[in-house]
C-alpha cells in the first residue's frame, strides 16, 4: 500500500491543460506539494503545465509507482492493460461510470478487476476523490478548493470515506474553518479492490494517525474489519449509511427481521470497541476528541468536574450528562478548601463549580487556573469540562495553562465555547494546537466526553478473536440426520431437542399422538400445562391459534387436543409441556448476516419483543465476557436487575446460553436461523418454552 501514499512517480492519464477540467486539477494539486516525478499522459498534447506530456503510459519513463486515471470508463480497461505491461503496482481510478451506473458500467468494472487480478495491480476506486495527505501536502485528488494553500491544517485524524462527493465537499467544509487538523483522507468510492480493511491496516501502522474515522455504506469483509478493529491500538469511529431493514417481510423468525435495521452493525461495532456516529459532524467531533486523548487511564470512570462561568449552564450540563451515564464528581474536602481560595466568603464551592463570582474577584485566568489545579488533582475526578466565553466580558481562561494541568494530571480536558464569532474561531484554533477538544454545542461536548470515558475503549475488555472457530457442538446422529435432510422450519419439538443438546435449558415436554398420551403427559408434568399444535411451516403458532395455555384438567386436555386436531385437519402433531411461571420473558436467536456472518441476538421477549424492540446483536464466536457485555447493552437494565419483588435475571446463566447458541449456529452451516422466544425467567433462571430452527434449502 506504500505506493499509494508515497509513490516515487505518478502518471496522470487523462491530463489536460483545460482550466477547471479534472485532468488539469489533478496536475495542479500535485504541484502543491508532491515532490516525486509527475508524468501527464494524453496523446493530444506535448506538454501540460511545464511537464512533458506522453501519448501513452507505455511511453512514460521510470519511476512510476502510481497511475491516476481520469478518463472515460470505456477507456479504462485498455489503460489497465498498459499499466499491467509496465508493471505499475498501483492504479487510482477517479472517473465514474462503473458499477454505480448499472449493468453496462458493472461489466466494465468487472473487466478492470479481471485485469488487475491477473497482473497483481492494486486498484483504488473507481468513482472516488482520491487521497489527501495533509502533513505531506500530497493531494492526489480532483477536489479544487483554494484553501489547500492557506488553510490545510495538519492533524492526527485520518478518514476513510466511501462517498466521493462527501469526501470532497465535507473535507472542504472542515478545512475551511481552520479549526480541525486532518492527517489523511481516503475516498475509496466503489472499492472494487482496495477497501476499508486495507486502509485501516495501513493507518494502524501510520505513526501520524491517532484516530480513524470511516463513512461506509457497506462492509467489504465484516469479520476482517472486526479483527482489525479489535487489534487496533487507535480509536476508530464509524458512520454507516444504508441501515434500513432489508426485506423483513421475508424473514422466517424474529431474529432475522430484527437484524435488518442496523442492529447487527451496531452490535459488531460495540463488540470490538468501535464507536458509532449518527451524523457527519458528530463523526468528526468524536474523531478529533479521541485523537487528542488516544489513551486515558484505564481506571477512569464517569466522574466529571464542571468549571463554568454561569450556574445555569452547569445545571444544564448536569441534566444532559445524566442521559449519557456521566455524573458530577463528588469533590473531596481538600479540593473544596483549595477552591475557597478564589471564591468569595459568602459562596461555598460545589460541583458544578460556578466561577463567575471568583472571576470577578480574582480575574478569570487566576480563577479558572486555580480551579483547574484543584479539581484535576482530585482522585475522584476523571475528566474536567470547562465552559469558556470570549469577547464582551473578561472571562477568557488561560487555555495553555489549563491544557498543561490536564496533561500533567492525566485528566482529559474538554471545553464548550461561546462568544464573538471571530474570537471563538481564534480560540478554537489555539485549542487545536494545544490538543484540547473545543465544542460549540454543550450537548455535543457531553457526547464527546461520554465517548472519551466509555469503558469500551479498553482493548482488555474486548473478547475473542473471530478468526478462531468456536467450540463445536456435537449433535447425536439422529438429529444430524435431520440437519442433513430437512429444509426450512423444523418443528418446535425437534428444534428444542437440538437446543437441549447444545446445553440450552428447555421446558419439559412430550410429543403425543393420542388423547390418552396427552392426558398422561399432563399428569406427569402436573397441571397447568400448555398444549400446542405443530404443523410444517408454521413459525408463529400463536397467530394461528395453535397454542393453548393454562390447561388445568384432563377434560381441558381432551378439549384442547380435539380443537388442535381440527385446526390442523389431523395433519399436525400435538405437544404437551409443563407451564412455566415467570416474572419476565426474554429472547435469543441466531442469524447469518451477509456482511458479518454468524451472529447472535438477545433481548426482551414475548409480547415485548415487537412492542419495545430492545435487542442487541453480537458476532459469533462469542466469549463469555462478550455475551455478558451484550446483556449489559440492553436498555431494560432496571427490569433485568429485578423490580417490584421480581428476582434479577441470572446474567451469567443467560450469557452461557448465548455462547452455546453462537457455537451451535457457527458449527453447523445449514442452520440459517434460530429463534428462541420466549425464555421464561423463573426465579432468575431462563428456560426456553418455544424455539424455532430454520435450515438452509
Alpha-beta classification: alpha/beta
Residues in β-strands, percent: 15-25%
Spell out the CATH superfamily of the largest domain. Succinyl-CoA synthetase domains
| CATH fold description of the largest domain | Rossmann fold
What is the β-strand count?
Answer: 31
Report how far apart the termini are: 41 Å
Shape estimate: flat
Spatial extent as radius of gyration: 31 Å
Helix content: 25-40%
The CATH class designation of the largest domain is Alpha Beta
- The number of helices is 25
The second-level CATH architecture of the largest domain is 3-Layer(aba) Sandwich
Q: Major β-sheet, in short?
A: 7 strands, mixed
Overall mean confidence score, pLDDT: 89
* Widest β-sheet, arrangement of strands: 9-8-11-10-12-13-14
Uncertain ranges: 245-252
What's the number of structural domains? Answer: 5
Give an account of the 3D structure.
It is a single chain. The chain is an alpha/beta fold. The chain folds into five domains: 1-125, Rossmann fold; 128-295, 3-Layer(aba) Sandwich (Rossmann fold), CATH 3.40.50.261; 297-452, Rossmann fold, CATH 3.40.50.261; 508-578, 2-Layer Sandwich (Dna Ligase, domain 1), CATH 3.30.1490.20; 584-695, ATP-grasp fold, B domain (D-amino Acid Aminotransferase, Chain A, domain 1). Helices cover 37% and strands 21% of the residues. The chain has 25 helices and 31 strands. The strands form six sheets. The protein has a seven-stranded mixed β-sheet, with helices on both faces. A hairpin with a 2-residue loop joins strand 3 (47-48) and strand 4. Helix 6 (196-205) runs parallel beside helix 7 (222-231) and helix 13 (356-362) crosses helix 14.
